[in-house]
Specification:
Layout: H1 6-14, E1 23-24, H2 31-36, H3 40-44, H4 47-61, E2 65-67, H5 74-78, E3 83-84, E4 92-93, H6 116-130, E5 135-141, H7 143-151, H8 154-161, H9 163-186, E6 191-195, H10 204-224, E7 228-233, H11 241-246, E8 251-254, H12 260-270, E9 273-278, H13 280-285, H14 289-303, E10 308-312, H15 322-333, H16 335-344, E11 367-373, H17 380-393, E12 400-406, H18 410-418, E13 426-429, E14 432-436, H19 442-455
Parallel strand pairs: 1-10, 2-5, 5-6, 6-7, 7-8, 8-9, 9-10, 11-12
Antiparallel strand pairs: 3-4, 11-13, 13-14
Length: 458
């Protein structure tokens, strides 16, 4: 076992076997662009830049596995969704073809279109460069998240009023997932991760009714082809964690919204390996190297060395300091340094955020809606929560104001802390968390805003 490569160790962990240490997979997406000093758009539209960024990450972070690209908009782009690009995040979907049209009106799903060819080229070259010692992940958009991209938030109402139509779209999206997974496997991916963050927004009953069957078709195909699979859900997926562990995936990965202890217990019960869940913003992005060391130690102590993969809770923010990820790598690879860090570092005092000034909600004539997010430009649940808030608020004119509070900033963290928000995304109305990690349908949100507007002073 001591002669095993990082790739060997990671694949053993995926199979639920004991390993000499935890596997380590930093989810390098647009953070690779930051390492090269270029924009996310330049990075995600060039095979050369993707290869250069991941080789730089491979050298500095000493991973056992790496994703080739972390972009949950690639399938949607080919299927006719318009994208809005940014310098420091993956693109965001800004149009939903099935909001007005039917499945038959979509463009043909063609893996030679969009950015798939350049990502497959990057995978082929990385396979030659580092694939012997490092497992390479192909990431695909999960069927429910792709359904949201195509239909928009009307899907939540349609799940109640027109479930057959939703099932038809999700089945189509699962077919897209099977084809995309097959292409990644043909191009040499060791692991196919089905990333479906929007499943954190539905109930276990809806997960079983709408998602379990279609997503299992994707996992079954990967298994039949001899590949390994992961189900990766960021957001507060606690309510659906057991449903996720009952799927046919090999690995379940989560973010900091879900207790790692809970995932470990459920994954063990259902024979799955598990991964997560280092704090993405408060530690890896906004903390320092000592914070990152302590967070890695925390996760490794909980996860152990039987089927556990240490990873951040989602793709790394663009501006994550390289020193923080190098500190995590040191904890993974150097037992002595880990023991020293564990013995000498002290948890730093929690910040009070006294400098973050909240609105004077009691005397504010408008209804203030604060949507606490990771960043709606890069987080799909956050994007749709902000969109739902703005759409509902539009009917009230200047009587309702919507503000996004991104926890990638000090101010956003202050709002999260002082408003008592525990999960991301959360929609607060006039200083009170009302919808935590679940997107309200338009009727429910409109009624909540109507009630709040009536309570405002004349």
């Amino acid at each position: 076992m001591n002669d095993a490569t990082g790739k060997d160790l990671l694949l053993q962990a995926f199979q639920g076997r004991a390993t000499r240490r935890a596997g380590w997979v930093p989810f390098v997406g647009v953070h690779g662009a930051k390492m090269l000093g270029i924009s996310a758009r330049e990075y995600l539209q060039s095979a050369d830049r993707i290869v250069d960024g991941l080789l730089a990450a491979h050298q500095r972070y000493r991973p056992d596995g790496l994703p080739v690209a972390f972009d949950l908009q690639m399938e949607a782009e080919v299927l006719g969704c318009d994208l809005r690009w940014a310098d420091d995040t993956p693109p965001a979907v800004v149009s939903h073809p099935l909001a007005q049209n039917g499945l038959g009106d979509l463009p043909r799903f063609d893996l030679s279109a969009g950015r798939f060819p350049l990502v497959f080229e990057a995978l082929r070259r990385l396979k030659d460069e580092i694939g012997g010692t490092t497992a390479l992940y192909g990431l695909i958009t999960g069927p429910f998240t792709l359904t949201l991209h195509l239909m928009g938030t009307r899907v939540f109402l349609d799940m109640l009023q027109d479930p057959d139509a939703v099932e038809q779209v999700i089945a189509f999206c699962a077919d897209v997932g099977v084809r995309t997974a097959e292409a990644y496997l043909q191009h040499g991916a060791d692991v196919v991760a089905v990333v479906d963050p929007m499943t954190s927004q539905i109930s276990p009953d809806h997960f079983e009714a709408f998602v379990a069957g279609p997503i299992n078709r994707v996992f079954s195909h990967i298994r039949e082809r001899g590949g390994l699979s992961s189900m990766f859900v960021c957001g507060n997926a606690t309510r659906n964690l057991e449903c996720m562990c009952r799927t046919l995936c090999d690995n379940v990965s989560i973010d900091e919204n879900v207790p790692l202890e809970m995932l470990k217990e459920l994954a063990g019960r259902y024979g799955r390996s598990f991964g997560g869940n280092m704090k993405l913003t408060t530690v890896l992005l906004l903390g320092d190297a000592d914070d990152a060391k302590l967070e890695a130690i925390r996760c490794m102590e909980i996860g152990g060395t039987n089927g556990f993969v240490l990873a951040p809770g989602c793709d790394l923010p663009y501006a994550t300091p390289e020193a923080n990820l190098e500190a995590v790598a040191l904890m993974v690879h150097d037992d002595y340094q880990r023991h020293v860090a564990n013995a000498t570092l002290r948890v730093k005092s929690a910040r009070s955020f006294d400098d973050v000034i909240l609105p004077d909600y009691a005397n504010e004539p408008r209804v203030i809606v604060d949507v606490v997010t990771l960043d709606s430009a890069s987080c799909a649940p956050c994007q749709y929560m902000v969109g739902a808030a703005r759409q509902a608020a539009a009917a009230f004119g200047d009587r309702v104001a919507v503000h996004e509070r991104k926890i990638t900033t000090h101010e956003g963290l202050g709002f999260m802390t002082r408003l008592g928000v525990e999960h991301i995304p959360t929609l607060c109305i006039h200083g009170r968390p009302c919808f935590a990690s679940i997107i309200p349908d338009a009727t429910t949100l409109t009624r909540a805003l109507e009630a709040a507007v009536k309570d405002r002073p004349a």
